[in-house]
Amino acid sequence: MRRTITITAAFLLTVVALASGASSVSATEPWLHLTSGSRPTNLAPESEGEIVLNAENMGNASIDGAETPVTLTDKLPSGLEALAVEGHSFQSPNFDTPMSCSLSKLTCVYSVEPVEAHGSNPGEHPLGPYQQLEMRIKVRVLPGASSSEANQLSVNGGGAPPATVSRALKISEEPAPYGIEDYEFRAENEGGSLDTQAGSHPYQVTGTFVFNQGPDFKGGASGGSGAGGPEPVAEPKDVIGKLPAGLLGNPRPIPTCSLGTFLAPTVSLEENACSPQTAMGVALVTVNDPGTFGHITFPESIYNLEPYAGEPAR
Question: 21 and 201 in contact (C-beta within 8 Å)?
């Protein structure tokens, strides 16, 4: 049987120590990267849809939700009415943990009690680097709603700096065409603040893009299962990105891994034998695997491989 796995929602790529001379010292605190969107991308007047909000831990320290709870708070535009809300923390494709949410306050709180690693439920571990919290709000589009007012998401707690994101929602009778719903490119200092100094060496560079979406096929705040996911307007084929002028990547400070080691079989199919020191970044990919997992988001490390003859980097 042939099964199609579709990139459905978002792709986030972080490259650590990308610029020449970047610090190799790891961050010792978490910080949260926020994204906001709607399902479907175009919300029809006097219809129902979902607002999907994500907070991803982009630092190199975990968030212990029991000791320092994380609160996601959303403020809807005046033309939308909240009907239901739910939240989940995602530590792996197989395990997610519901968050405590309030419809009246439009908040979701991550406060999972951590447990010992042996004999434990992986869904109860602290929120590690590149793991995420997701909040979904089922909404009704009221008469007279417009695209002029933005949706606002804020997050506090967890030992991470407070963060906010404001994004306009599109109210339209027209179905969303194939395209990009949201795009962001950030050069970041250690701790997550923007690096705006010319000639500096960012701690990491993060790019995010989200494809236009149709309505969720099941689950989420509208279905209550938490296992649903968006259906893309169309399936992407090739995604090609170019670095902005003036941003130069230098892989030389990072050790390399041989292709043979990278491809060698390991006990865990989710890992390879490359040393962690050869990892130069991570990609977070959200996919819909209808045959097994459904709607999942998972991180994949990006390794600095030995280049072939004539290649500057691989």
Answer: yes
pLDDT, position 79 = 92
Measured in whole angstroms, the distance separating CA 10 from the mean position of its chain's CA atoms is 7
CATH class of 28-237: mainly beta
CA of 168: how far to CAs of 15, 71, 86, 185, 274, in Å? Answer: 28, 22, 21, 18, 42
Q: What is the pLDDT of residue 286?
A: 72
For the ranges 4-8, 34-38, 57-61, 264-268, the lowest mean pLDDT is seen at: 4-8
DSSP state of 105: T
Cβ(157)–Cβ(100) below 8 Å: no
> Closest Cα to residue 169, out of 47, 59, 56?
47
What distances in angstroms separate CA 56 from CA 48, 60, 298, one per listed residue?
26, 12, 11
CA 189, chain centre distance (Å): 19
Domain ranges of the chain: 28-237
Residue indicated by tokens 């080691």:
261
Report the candidate in 90, 74, 211, 89 with the shortest Cα–Cα distance to residue 139.
74
CA 33 to chain centre: 8
Q: Which residue pairs from 241-244 have beta carbons closer than 8 angstroms and sit at least 24 positions apart in sequence?
A: 241/207, 244/185
**Tally of CA atoms within 13 A in the half-sphere of 226 that contains its CB:** 17
CB atoms inside a 10 Å sphere around CB 255: 16
